[in-house]
Amino acid sequence: MTNLLKTRSEHARLRLEVTQELEDIFARSRRTAEAYGPEFLGLWDLAADHAQGGKLIRPLLMLEMFEALGSNEPSASNRSEAVRIAAAIEVLHFAFLLHDDVIDGDLVRRGRPNLIGELATSSFDETHSDAAQHWAKSGAILAGDLLLSATHQLFARANVSGSLKERLLDLLEHTIFETTAGEFVDVGLSDGVIRSDLSTVLQMTGRKTACYSFELPLRAAVILSGGSQELERRLSTAGAHLGLAYQLQDDLLSTFGDAAAHGKDAYSDLREGKQTAIISFARMSNSWPSIEPDFADPQLSFERAEHLRDLLRECGAEDFVLGLIQEQLGAFYESLAVVNETASIPTRVRDVLLDLAARFEGRKS
Questions:
Q1: What are the pLDDT digits (tens) for 188-234?
Q2: What is the C-alpha separation between 202 and 244, in angstroms, rounded?
Q3: Domain limits of the chain?
Q4: Strands, E, within the chain: which ranges?
Q5: Residue range 160-365, CATH number
Q6: Domain 1-158 belongs to what architecture?
Q7: Which protein family is named in the record (predicted)?
Q8: For a tag site, which of 31, 164, 244, 311 has the least CB within 10 Å?
């Protein structure tokens, strides 16, 4: 019980540090926005509000790993830079969410109207509803663009040596390329422009989510702690497997989970025609002719969506994806077990990763 309480206390401390840094980042942006009129200032007030309240998985992982890689008492300057980069990773995450909501046409995030939904409602009237939606989506795109720029600025201003800064900036560029490429393929799959098969879907999933959600924070922690490139590579491999398992689980929750728990629009993936591993398996089953007519129907009712969910479960898609998750977790554990004299994984680092994997058990959101 003592260790559990200590872990909760440490998470609360790290969360507070990241939250305060995020508040500072958005406060600076807000001061800049004041010169551009009340509408633009209102956009940043909404952005600051919606950027807060998340689980902070990525920045917390980075800080936990940074502390595990460093000494028990890292210098104040190094600690400050780590917190700043951790917050920058959350800013990057929010920028991707803004763009993703525009692409998917989503109006709900974390169980409430997202930035687009709230901005559109604030300017809505019956005669200009289409204009309000267009304005709100445009605001999300533009805010996302500025947040991408802010992320780069935070990385570029990190007070670290030239070689480490170059590694950080190369990592950021790689991450944005990988995530953008994954999103591009995701849209192509959903629109039927790219042929859907399991290998393509899994590759897209890894690029779109695993790279920036797990590989980025792990690799950034290694760089900031002055770790070797070989250790960075090993943690990148572990993060790729863990990230893919996480996203596969997220897809399961979106289709088979409780919408009240995960906070997304219930069955939005089915309405939008998301080409997940669930659908890849269903396409190969005898049940697909019964599933296909309702899949990707934007007017899909809640009752028909529930029936579609039941068909996907009965055809074995849920169990199949659960098996894929176990495969990725198995590969993750194997990557930690590999003995490499040139870059052995420290015990504290392994403990952070094992604890993260354990949190998957019983995940509801």
A1: 999 999 999 999 999 999 999 899 999 999 999 999 999 999 999 99
A2: 8
A3: 1-158, 160-365
A4: 108-109, 112-113
A5: 1.10.600.10
A6: Orthogonal Bundle (1.10)
A7: Belongs to the FPP/GGPP synthase family.
A8: 31
